[in-house]
Write a structure and sequence with these properties.
about 475 residues, Helix Hairpins, Heat Shock Protein 90, 4-stranded antiparallel beta sheet, 9 helices, 12 strands, about 15% strand, rod-shaped, HisK_dim/P_sf, kinase
Length: about 475
C-alpha cells in the first residue's frame, strides 16, 4: 500500500473514532446518570427498611426487655434483612457479636449528626441500661468494609431526582470533531488536485514551463510523485517541441540555400542563354541536394516515429559490413582517404539488415568526410557469439569534436562552432543514432588521443550463430 492510502486510512479512522467517542461518551454519561439515580434510590430504600428494623428493635427492647430483643435479633439473623446491633455503653453487643471499634465510633458519630430519623437510636431499658441500636447493611459498603447505614439528611428524602445531563452535548462534540477532521482530509487531498488541474490547463494552452511539484509543499505521497511526473512530462514535451521547432528552422535554412542558388542559376540562364548547359547542371545538382535532404528527413521521421525501414530476417553480419566498406571506398578514394577494415567471418543473425546498413554506412561516410586528405579511417568489428554482442568502432584522423559537443553531434543539423562541416545534408549521424536505438543498441562518440573522432556502435543480437 502507498503512503497516500495510509494517510487516507488513518484520517478516516480518526474521523470515525471521534464520532464514535462522542456517541460512546453520551452512552457512558447516560449510564452513569442512571447508576447515580439507582444508587440514590437504593440509599433511600435502605434508609427506609433500616429505619423500620431499628424502630422495631427499639420497640421490642423498650417494651419486652433485653431477653425479648435477644430473641428477636437472633431470629432476624436468619432472614435477608439488615442486621441490627444493640450495643451497651461498654461497647458490647447484646448477642455478644464482635463489633469493631471503628464501626462503633462511626455509629456514635452518625447518631450525633442526625437531626431526626429512625436509622440510629438510643433506647433506655426499664432497668436503666442504655443501648445504641443501628443497622449494618452488607450490600451498602464504604470502601473495603461494611459499615452502619449513615443517617440520610432530611432534605435528601424530599429532594427531586437528579436532573439528567443533556446527551446531545457529547454527540454534537463528536460530530463536530468528525466534521473538522473530514474537512481537513478533503482540503488535504483537494489542494494538490487543484494545482494539478491548473497545471494541466496551462500545459493545454502551451505553457509548458509550469511547475507543480513545488506547490505540493513538504508532503510525501503519491500525489507528490504525480506532480513530479507531470513536471518531468512537461519538461520533456517542452524539449521535444523545441527540438521540432529547431528542426523546422534548420530544414527551412537548408532548403533556402539550394533554392536560392537554383533561382540565381535560372536568372543567369535567362540573361546569358549561351550558358544554359552549365546552368542546367547547376540546377540538377541543387535539385539532387534537395531530394537527398527530403529523403533523409523522411528516414529520420520514420525512425523517430518508431517505424522500422527493414524487416527482421537472417542476415550475414560479416558480409553486410564488408559490403558497406567496399561501397564507401569509392567515395573515400576521391578524397585520398584509405579505409582499413578488420572484421570477422560469416555470422548469421536475425536482425534488420536495412537499419544496420544505414547506421554503419552513415557513420563511415561521416568519418570519411571529416578525415584529413591522405588520412586513414579504420573500421574494427567484433562479434561475441556467447553473448550475441556486436561491437563496431569507426575512427578517423580528422580534427575531432569539442568535448561538450560529443553528444550533440547526433542531433539533426548540428554544426560545431570549432569545425567547418563539409557540404552534406547533416542528418547522417542523427539517422545512425535513431537506427541503432531502434535495434536496441547504443552509439557513442569520443575523441582519439592521436586526434580525430571515434564512434562506437554496440548491439546485442540474441539467437546469433556462426555460419559456414
Amino acid at each position: 500500500m502507498g503512503r497516500l492510502f495510509w494517510k487516507f486510512f488513518f484520517a478516516s479512522w480518526l474521523a470515525m473514532l471521534a464520532a464514535g467517542a462522542g456517541v460512546g461518551t453520551a452512552v457512558w454519561w447516560s449510564h452513569q446518570t442512571l447508576e447515580q439515580e439507582r444508587h440514590a434510590q437504593k440509599t433511600l430504600d435502605l434508609d427506609h427498611h433500616a429505619g423500620l428494623f431499628v424502630g422495631a428493635a427499639a420497640d421490642v427492647l423498650q417494651f419486652g426487655g433485653e431477653q425479648a430483643l435477644s430473641q428477636y435479633l437472633q431470629q432476624a439473623r436468619h432472614h435477608p434483612a439488615p442486621q441490627v446491633y444493640a450495643v451497651d455503653a461498654r461497647g458490647t453487643d447484646i448477642l455478644q457479636r464482635a463489633v469493631e471499634p471503628q464501626l462503633l465510633n462511626q455509629a456514635r458519630d452518625w447518631y450525633l449528626q442526625q437531626d431526626d430519623g429512625d436509622e440510629i437510636r438510643k433506647v433506655r431499658t426499664v432497668e436503666g441500661r442504655e443501648f445504641l441500636l443501628f443497622a449494618v447493611i452488607p450490600e451498602f459498603t464504604r470502601g473495603r468494609h461494611s459499615g452502619p447505614l449513615p443517617p440520610i439528611p432530611p432534605h435528601w428524602r424530599d429532594a427531586p431526582p437528579p436532573k439528567r445531563p443533556s446527551l446531545w452535548l457529547p454527540v454534537i462534540s463528536g460530530t463536530f470533531a468528525s466534521l473538522c477532521l473530514s474537512a481537513a482530509l478533503a482540503w488535504y487531498f483537494a489542494k494538490p488536485i487543484r494545482s494539478l488541474r491548473k497545471a494541466f490547463a496551462d500545459a493545454a494552452v502551451g505553457r509548458l514551463d509550469t511547475q507543480v511539484a513545488e506547490a505540493m509543499g513538504n508532503r510525501h505521497d503519491e500525489l507528490t510523485d504525480l506532480g513530479q511526473d507531470f513536471d518531468h512530462m512537461a519538461a520533456q514535451l517542452d524539449s521535444l517541441i523545441s527540438a521540432q521547432q529547431r528542426l523546422l528552422h534548420d530544414v527551412s535554412h537548408e532548403l533556402r540555400s539550394p533554392l536560392a542558388r537554383m533561382q540565381a542559376a535560372i536568372g543567369l540562364a535567362q540573361q546569358q542563354p549561351h550558358k544554359i548547359p552549365e546552368t542546367l547542371e547547376r540546377i540538377e545538382r541543387e535539385s539532387q541536394r534537395i531530394s537527398d535532404l527530403v529523403g533523409e528527413l523522411l528516414v529520420l521521421s520514420r525512425l523517430e516515429a518508431g517505424v522500422s525501414d527493414g524487416n527482421m530476417a537472417d542476415t550475414d553480419l560479416g558480409g553486410l559490413l564488408a559490403d558497406i566498406v567496399e561501397d564507401v571506398r569509392f567515395e573515400a578514394a576521391q578524397k585520398q582517404v584509405e579505409i582499413t577494415y578488420r572484421g570477422f567471418d560469416e555470422v548469421i543473425v536475425e536482425t534488420s539488415g536495412e537499419l544496420l546498413h544505414r547506421a554503419v554506412e552513415n557513420v563511415l561516410r561521416n568519418a570519411v568526410q571529416h578525415c584529413k586528405c591522405g588520412g586513414e579511417v579504420t573500421v574494427n568489428a567484433g562479434f561475441d557469439p556467447a553473448e550475441g554482442r556486436l561491437r563496431i568502432v569507426i575512427e578517423d584522423q580528422g580534427i575531432g569534436v569539442p568535448e561538450a559537443d560529443l553528444q550533440a553531434i547526433f542531433q539533426p543539423f548540428f554544426k560545431s562552432p570549432n569545425q567547418k562541416k563539409p557540404d552534406s545534408v547533416g542528418l547522417g549521424l542523427s539517422i545512425a543514432y535513431r537506427a541503432v536505438e531502434a535495434l536496441g543498441g547504443n552509439i557513442r562518440a569520443r575523441n582519439r588521443s592521436q586526434g580525430g573522432l571515434a564512434v562506437e556502435i554496440e548491439l546485442r543480437l540474441l539467437g546469433a550463430g556462426a555460419g559456414g
